Amino acid sequence: MKLDPTKMKDWEIAAEAEKNMKTVYQLAEELGLEKEELLPYGHYVAKIDYRKVLERLKDKPNGKYIDVTAITPTPLGEGKSTTSIGLVEGLGKRGQKVIGALRQPSGGPTMNIKGSAAGGGLAQIIPLDKFSLGLTGDINAIMNAHNLAMVALTARMQHEFNYDDETLAKRGLKRLNIDPKRVEMGWIIDFCAQALRHIVIGLGGKKDGYPMESKFWIAVASEVMAILAVAKDLKDFRERIGKIVVAFDKFGNPVTTEDLEVAGAMCAWMVDAINPNMIQTIEGQPVLIHAGPFANIAIGQSSIIADYVGLKLADYNVTESGFAADIGYEKFWNIKCRLSGLTPDCVVVVATIRALKCHGGAPIPLPGRPIPKEYLEENLEWVEKGCENLLHCVNIVKKSGVTPVVCINAFYTDTKDEIALVKRICEEHGIRAAVSEHWLKGGEGALELADAVMDACNEPSNFRFLYELDEPVKDRIEKIAKEVYGADGVIYLPDAEAKIKLIEADEELRRMPICMVKTHLSLSDNPALKGVPKGWQLRVRDVLIYRGSGFIVPVAGDISLMPGTGSDPAYRRIDVDVETGKVKGLF
After folding, report:
1. Are strands 245-249 and 254-256 parallel, antiparallel or unpaired?
2. Catalytic residue among 64, 72, 74, 80
3. 345-354: per-residue pLDDT in tens?
4. Active-site residue, from 187, 294, 439, 587
5. φ, ψ for residue 125 (rounded to 5)?
6. Catalytic, out of 82, 256, 281, 519
7. How far apart, in whole angstroms, are the C-alpha atoms of residue 525 and residue 542?
8. Annotated catalytic residue: which of 187, 216, 323, 587?
9. Given Cys at both, which of 128, 168, 494, 546 links 14, Cβ 3.0 to 4.6 Å?
10. Quick check: is 323 catalytic?
């Protein structure tokens, strides 16, 4: 059957493509993996033993490292994952040995409005149902590890409330004096469950826990997930797990998972999860799926370990950064590259005509509703105005000293004049740009993009960080606000001021990189402001401390660590064919 994305839904395309999937054994042979390095989960999904691969190939030079980011997206997204997959397919069509390294999707967006981030059209990864519904269980392991820390905390608080010091000592415990008003962690679940954002636990009698306010976050906002993304090996992972600050005591001292004697057990849940997962594109190129932290509320990157493996196994390793250049690429640049020691050879900035129109004045499209008719009509004025946002995002990449390539992620509804206008504006600013029709044509449609990327990878780069870790915390936040977002300055609310004083007084904390929490829908902290907002100041209302993952986390604007489920979620259309067991309706 001919695969036609203009007539077929994504899950229908995936189902057809899966009939001709390569087995993981074939993928492993093509990558040059040895038998004991492949850890199969059935015939079409596997984990890779990262330690054995990296030890065997430690003297092999790395391949080219490509990051995919984007302009500020609409609420519908701009096909960044689709472009990453399309680029992998395009490089494969050019005969290159290529591998992708992408994040694992959360069950929250998969069952809600955004979908599973498996790509779309003829640029997808398969098997779609396995990818979208838990894969090899890494997120379940993260939930178990994270929630075990909360079990340890709440049990300890109950016992300290019920017993005196002598009784605690008989059980081998010393009083930690945990302050119930300063519990930092909450529970996690891998769904968008707004009803669990603010809860009360411990109701009942003295054997039912300690009564206090608590909360749930979405699983991909867990610090355990962030640690999976940034850990370089199991030893590094174990050390970071033990540094997670669960709460503070009544004297203001941090209480860690190591203090609760739960860090080792948390790590035990993660021993298998630390190995990257391998699946494939619908054209048969391998893709590593590992870690999945949210981007506007976490680091938004796939794992460092997956990149280490991909760069040894292939000539080109394509990864992506969550959301736009102001959030995803900034964190890739100043956090992930700093921790991994890797630097990109090229950065792709994805733009759609739809998003450019949105930044140029068109009505904002909303998930679950028909796209406004204005997006189906040519409007060169809106496109040209919207290119201000594109140029701003390209300049963010240029600040890092890496060569950018603009990918015009073309749809069959775009007009030739709209696409030509964007290419002309890029050329006028000396920016390499390529049109890609991977959604419609797969790898064949991404050849122009693949050629531009290979060309850019041959240019010398002058990679440099935006800030140094010995700079004061406020100076670093303000550099991000002014030089990346385009703000005039930063306003700190009282809670943020107090946290920054605490951080500056701690030699270890003050030298951690900055991981901003901010809306992805605007360069500013106000999602309604499109284009390149002027005359505004970033409002930092709080600063979280992720001691385990090693981040200082300023929170700007009204961002929740537990998203909500909309009125028309995807789960209304997902079902199972009871004759075959195949899942349908995923996207």
Report:
1. antiparallel
2. 80
3. 999 999 999 9
4. 439
5. -115, 145
6. 82
7. 14
8. 323
9. 128
10. yes
CB 106 within 8 A of CB 292: yes
Residue 459: partners with Cβ closer than 8 Å, 6 or more residues away: 403
Longest dimension (CA), the chain: 80
Q: How confident is the model at residue 75 (pLDDT cuts 50, 70, 90)?
A: confident
Q: Assess whether 352 carries a catalytic annotation.
A: no
Question: Is 82 a catalytic site residue?
Answer: yes
| Residue 115, both tokens | 């979908």
| Catalytic, out of 64, 93, 114, 476 | 114
How far apart, in Å, are the Cα atoms of 12 and each of 90, 155, 184, 488, 586? Answer: 22, 48, 44, 48, 9
- Region for residue 140 given its phi and psi (left: phi exceeds 0; alpha: psi -120 to 50; beta: otherwise): alpha
**Catalytic site residue 103?**
yes
pLDDT, tens digit (0-9, with 9 covering 90-100), for 422-478: 999 999 999 999 999 999 999 999 999 999 999 999 999 899 999 999 999 999 999
Burial tier of 357 (Cβ tally within 10 Å: 0-12, 13-18, 19+): buried
| Predicted TM-score (pTM) above 0.90 | yes
Query: One of 47, 64, 93, 103 is an active-site residue; which one?
Result: 103
Tell me if residue 294 is catalytic: no
Picking from 308, 328, 246, 349, the residue whose alpha carbon sits closest to that of residue 515 is 328
The reply to whether 215 belongs to the active site is: no
Integer Cα distance of 366 and 494 in angstroms: 34
To the query of whether residue 499 is one of the catalytic residues in this protein, the response is no
b or e along 115-154 (b: 16 or more beta carbons within 10 Å of the residue's beta carbon)? bbbbbbbbbbbbbbbbbbbbbbebbbbbbbbbbbbbebbb
Q: Which residues lie across from 536 on neighbouring strands?
A: none
